[in-house]
Structures are given as C-alpha cells and as structure tokens.
Amino acid sequence: MVDRIIKLPGRAEKTIRDKGYAWFIDGDNDEYLTDDAILISQAETDKLVAASEACFVLYEKALDHISKNDLWSRLGLPPEIIPLIHHDMKRNLPHIIGRLDFAGGLEQMPTKLIEFNADTNTIMPESALFQSWMYEPVKKDYKGQFNYLHKDLTQTFIDLKQQFPDRPPTLLLSSLGHVEDRLNLNVIYKAAVEAGFEVEYADLEKVVFGDDGVFLHAAEGYKQYFFFFKLIPWEFIMFEEPDLMKILVDLSINHDLIILNPSYSIVFQAKHIMSIMYEMFPENDLLLPTYDSKNFLKGKQYVRKGNFGRLGENVKIVNPSGETIAKTKGDFGDFTKIFQEFAEMYADEDGDIYQPSMFLVDGRASCISFRRRDDLIIDDDAEFVPHVIF
Fold this sequence. Notes:
Layout: E1 5-7, H1 13-18, E2 36-40, H2 42-69, H3 82-91, E3 98-103, E4 112-117, H4 124-135, H5 149-163, E5 170-175, H6 179-194, E6 198-203, E7 208-209, E8 214-218, E9 221-225, E10 227-230, H7 234-240, H8 242-255, E11 258-260, H9 265-269, H10 272-280, E12 290-291, E13 302-306, E14 316-318, E15 324-327, E16 337-341, E17 346-347, E18 353-361, E19 364-373, E20 383-385, E21 387-389
Parallel strand pairs: 2-21, 5-6, 5-10, 10-11
Antiparallel strand pairs: 1-2, 3-4, 3-18, 7-8, 8-9, 12-16, 13-14, 13-16, 14-15, 17-18, 18-19, 19-20
Helix pairs in contact: 2-10, 5-6, 7-8
C-alpha cells in the first residue's frame, strides 16, 4: 500500500493573498487548505478521466430518456422550467462546467459515482489555481497534476463565440453576492476574457432584466449582455424566485438570451436522476444502486440525500441494521430523498477519508481535486488537498 500523503513546503499563502484570494485562508477558513498533498498514479488518473467522461455520457442519455418519456415530475421540477430545458437542448447549449464526486478510485478501490454538482459547482479557485501554486516547490520530484481547467474553459468560450457568431460576445457574470461565489467566478471571468468576451460581474440585485435582455447601468445609460453566466442555483430560482424564473424563460426562448450553465443542468443536478440512471444501466460498474425508496436497500448500508442537497447538508448514513451512524443538518430537508448504497472512500492511516472529484468542461475531464474529512460525510467542514501525480 502506497504512503500517499506527503508534506508540502507550505500553502502558497503569499501567492494566494497577492492574487486576491485571502478569504480562503483567513478567519474561519484558516484550516481549509492543508499543507499536505495526496499522491495519485498516472494509471489512477487515467481511470478517473475515463470514468468521468463515461458518467457524463450516462447523464446525457438519461436526459434524453427523461425528455422523450416526460419523466420531469420524477425529478421534482416545476412545469415552468420544462420549455426552457427543451429550448436549451434544441439549441445545443454547452454545459460549461460541473464537478463529479466519486468514492474510491485509489488503491484498487472501485470508482463509484456519488453525485454530479452540475449547476453551480464551487472549489474552482482551489482546483484551478491554488493546487498548482502549492505544487510548484516539489514539481521537480513528481509528474505534474491533472489540471487543464483554465485551458479547457477558455477553449469552450471560444467555441461558444463560434457557435453564436451573430451574438455580440458580451458576458455578464452574477451571483447572490457571497464572497466565495465572486471568487469562484474569477475563474470563469479570466477564461472568458482570454477567449475574447467582454465580461462584467454584478450581484443579482444590480442586474436589470429588461423586456428584451439583461442589462447593467452604464455611463451611457444601459449596457446589454447577450450571455449570462449565473452562479445562482436553478432550484433557488425555481422555488424562491418564480418571477425571475418567468423572466429568464421569456428572455431565453423569445429573445435569445444565452444562460449558462444551461437550464438542463438542473436535470443533472437533481439527485433523482441517479435512480433513473441506475434503472437504465443497472450493470454499469460506475453506478451505485440508487433508488427513490429505502425499501430496496434493506439489510445494506446506504446514504440518504435530498434531491437538491448541497454542501453535504441533510445527509444521513444508515448501517445494515437500520441505525443512523452519521448525519448532517441543513437547509435541504424538505426535498424528496434518494437512497444510495454506501461506498467506501480511501482512508489514510489516521482514518481521514478522501473524496476525488473531477471537473468537467463541456463534457471533457479537465481537473482533479480532493477533499478530506475526519468523518463519514464530506461536508462544508472538509479540507482541500492538492494532488500530485507520481
């Protein structure tokens, strides 16, 4: 068994501060970045790449199956968003970025899909930037990292311009204003600028939704943006801001506003799609048995998760005897649940577990990242651990 955890000379704190990302290492976040790295072999890297791209194909097939068989209600989606999903699928809008979370993948452990953070994934600066800065002092001793996130994002935005040559390449980025969200959007910002977009950021409350597009106040009056990338969850818009939902549907369908990630990303985000995928592909080695009812997992250890849960909130792990052995609280308890067979994650000699994740850019595997936790559930208290290929 390989001793996979190595110490790094530091956490690249000066670089992180100089680049404007001090939020990730100050205050309550002072222990979020470790000075450890986890070693991963080239063969394991290749395996994660292949698994990630294969999983994305499964999600696309499931989306097509859901659309053709009108299974939207199984995903807990309101009817108002369905026309927009059909519209975005017909326009072939690219899925700009998402993050697949896995169990296993190391030490001959099987690689198993846990979930797809397909809508508004985070840990982008840590993955695209911080881990490469932290790797720099030891790069002579190892074989690099699997990290092409900026390069692939830039190419995807170049492709997007070419796909819609009649649309002025003006891109508005928006979030609800949390510091973490704005810093994550920096990764998108830099890639889009390099691709030739004119890019601006504004908190959602500052965005002007007109009759025929989205605008910001400018010196000359109003400036229109023809591409709109939102780090605002589709489920928040669907359930908390129905008026905004109607506006976005109208602007997209009737006025060609291009919203990213596209609306079909909420289909990938909804956990119930994993039970549909398992029904479609029960023999696929990447998929865990996943159901809409716990009755199918009696006598087995399983994980219960909310349909639109995030940050490891409202997750419960139940052992084969039916006893709860781990659980988290959160804001997603009112959503319907899925039940997924438990899968082991790699653990170090201290018992800490490691969850490998893969960022996908337009369906391509682009960047590996790891989070570590001293508990069974990877939640908002997890640490970020850079990887090194050996």
